[in-house]
Amino acid sequence: MRGNASKRIPRSLQMLKQCQISSGQIIMKCTCKDVWLKIWLPLQYQNCANSTQVLCNNNGLLPPITEIEKENIGCSASVKNTSLVNSSICAAVFAVITCAMIVYKLRFELFISTRTVMNFFRNPLSPSSVIHDIYISSNEDDELIRKWLLTSLVPCLEKKGFDVFLFFRNSTIGKPWEQETIDVISKSRNLIIFLSDDAKGNQQWNKREWNYAWK
């Protein structure tokens, strides 16, 4: 397309590779809308560097657009400000995503740390409000765990002077199960949770029990 009288280069050409276009030398009145040419035009070291050259008619001078500063072709400071704002937004989004990933990965550690700080400022339990030293949570449908608790662990703890509450052994007959769990946990100094590979137990109840223990 050499030798044409073009005074403007449509930006749609930006979709093509620079070396696919050969317009020769084009002299035009450069504006801020033509800034994209500074990036799109072939670089000096490319074989097609002279295929298209854009010269800006600036008071009789014809400098190449690739050598003109943005401010000299009508770009106001707002363009810089917009770039700065866009960069700030990108940095903020990246920081938020990074923080979210870190929080998600360390969520359990953060939960425990938060609880530790809260307990530091919370008034300690008075000795009179503590009834049991240890509350044990386990899958009561697992016969092996029941047998081990009753014949080994609990007798060992009680022999050392700990008051142990084992729900299937110490719960009050006829009292609402859930309410008694809340009452006993709130008056126990420590909680021991035993996990089981047996999936036949009441897992939903265990989750609620652990939730009460956490609170």
From TrEMBL:
Domain TIR: 130-215
Gene Ontology annotations of biological process type: signal transduction
Pfam entry (one): TIR_2
Spans through the membrane: 84-104
Keyword set, alphabetical order: Membrane, Transmembrane, Transmembrane helix
Name of the molecule in the record: TIR domain-containing protein
Organism of provenance: Mytilus coruscus (Sea mussel)
